[in-house]
Amino acid sequence: MRLLVLGGTTFVGRWVVTAAVERGWHVTTFTRGLAGWAHPGAEAVTGDRLRPADLAPLAEGRWDAVVDTWAGAPRAVRDSARALAGCADRYVYVSSRAVYAPPTPAGLKEDWPTVEASADAGDIDYAPNKRGGEIAVEEAFGDRAVLARAGLILGPYELPGRLPHWLLRAARGGEMLAPGPAGQPFRYVDVRDLVAWLLDAAEGGVSGPVNLVNPEEHATTRDLLESAVAVTGGLTELVWVEPEAIEAAGIDRWAALPGWIPPSPAQAGLIRTDVGRAVATGLRCRPVVETVADTWAWLTGSGETPEFPPGLDPAEERAVIDAWRRSAPLPP
After folding, report:
1. Span 53-70, mean pLDDT?
2. Residue 273 within any structural domain of the chain
3. 28-47 mean pLDDT
4. Would you state the pLDDT for residue 179?
5. Does residue 245 register a pLDDT over 80?
6. pLDDT above 70 covers what percent of the chain?
7. Judging by DSSP bridges, how do beta strands 152-154 and 174-179 pair with one another?
8. In the structure, what pLDDT confidence band is assigned to residue 332 with cuts at 50, 70 and 90?
9. Are residues 167 and 149 in the same domain?
C-alpha cells in the first residue's frame, strides 16, 4: 500500500503514520515541516496545503489511499481532494459527529441531517468546517470517499488535553468533582483503535459516513474516572455531582469538564450514537483502563508532554462540591 498522509505529525496523524509503517506500507507525509516529530520510516514532503501550487507534486505520484485529518477551512480539503482525485484510489477523511444538525436523537445514525456547510468556505467553525470537508471529498471521490465521523478521540499524544485533564486532576488527590450520572455511557474512541479502522478502510470495503465511537455498553463515566484514579495512585475521592448542580454553578463544561455531556434531549444522539456500521466494518475497542493507563504512561514518561489548559479552578471545584452536599437529599 502506498499511503499519503496530509499532516501526520500530531495525535491522530502521528498514529496513522506509525501504524501504517508498522504494517509495512510505503508512507509519505505532506506537512509544512514545522512540527518537531517525524517518523523515520516515512518519506516527508514539505509544502503548505493552503497554497494549491504546493499540491501539484503530490498529483504526480500514485497513491492507494489518502488520509486527511484537517479541521480548518473546507476549501483546503476541496483543493487537495481535487488535486488527488486522479491519482489516488481512496480518500479517508477524519470527520466528526459534530457534523450532525442538532438536536440529535437517541440511536443517532449516519443518515441524520447535517449542519449547513460548503466545500468552498473559509475557516468558520468546527462543525461546518468538518462538514464542508466531507462535501469536498465526496464531490471529488464519490463512492471512493470514506468519512470517519469520530467521537471524542483519546489516547497517548492527545493534544486537546481532555483525558490528560482528568488524569492530572486525579493525580493531585483530594476530593474531585465527578460529573454525573456516573452510569451514563462515555462515548469516545481510542486513537489507536480509530487508526486501525482508518487503515483497514483505506484498503477498501467501506465508503461514505461511519460513526466511530465505542459501543454504548463499552464504558461509563464512572469507568473512565475510576480508572484515572487507579492509575494515578488511588488517592483521590470521586464526588459525584448531578448535572443540574454543575450547570447551576455556571461551569464551562468544555474547558473544565472535558468530554462530559450532560444528559438532555437535544444531545441524546451524542450519548446514544448507533455504531452498528462501524462494528460491522471492523471497529474494535480496547478496554477503557488500557486507554487511561497508556495515556498516563505517556504523560509521565515521555518527556514531551505539552502544556494543557488549566481546567477547573480548585476553589470553584471546592465550592461546587460543598454546595452540592448542602443541597443533596439525605439518604434514607
Report:
1. 96
2. no
3. 93
4. 98
5. yes
6. 98
7. unpaired
8. very low
9. no
- CATH number of the CATH domain containing 93: 3.40.50.720
Q: Are residues 12 and 132 in the same domain?
A: yes
Mean pLDDT of the chain: 95
What is the reported pTM?
A: 0.96
CA-based nearest residue to 286, from 201, 236, 227: 227
Beta bridge partners, 154, equal 190
Shared domain for 207 and 242, answered yes or no, is no
What is the tally of structural domains in the chain? 2
Nearest CA-CA partner of 148 in 68, 218, 28, 268: 68
Express each pLDDT in 191-207 by its tens digit: 999 999 999 999 999 99
User: What range defines the domain where residue 32 resides?
Assistant: 2-154+190-212
Question: Rounded mean pLDDT of 265-292?
Answer: 98
| Whether residue 136 sits in one domain with residue 61 | yes
Let me know whether 232 and 121 are in one domain: no
Q: Is the pLDDT of residue 297 over 80?
A: yes
| CATH code of 249's domain | 3.90.25
**Helix/strand/coil (H/E/C) assignment for every residue in the chain:** CEEEEECCCCHHHHHHHHHHHHCCCEEEEEECCCCCCCCCCCEEEECCCCCHHHHHHHHHCCEEEEEECCCCCHHHHHHHHHHHCCCEEEEEEEEEHHHECCCCCCCECCCCCECCCCCCCCCCCHHHHHHHHHHHHHHHHHHHEEEEEECEEECCCCCCCHHHHHHHHHHHCEEEEEECCCCCECCEEEHHHHHHHHHHHHCCCCCEEEEECCCCCCCEHHHHHHHHHHHCCCCEEEEEECHHHHHHCCCCHHHHCCCCCCCCHHHHHHHCECCHHHHHCCCCCCCHHHHHHHHHHHHHHCCCCCCCCCCCCHHHHHHHHHHHHHHCCCCC
**Is residue 332 one of the residues assigned to a domain?**
no
Residue 224 and residue 144 share a domain: no
Same domain (yes/no): 181, 125: no
Q: Is 71 part of any domain?
A: yes
* Same domain flag for 229 and 98: no
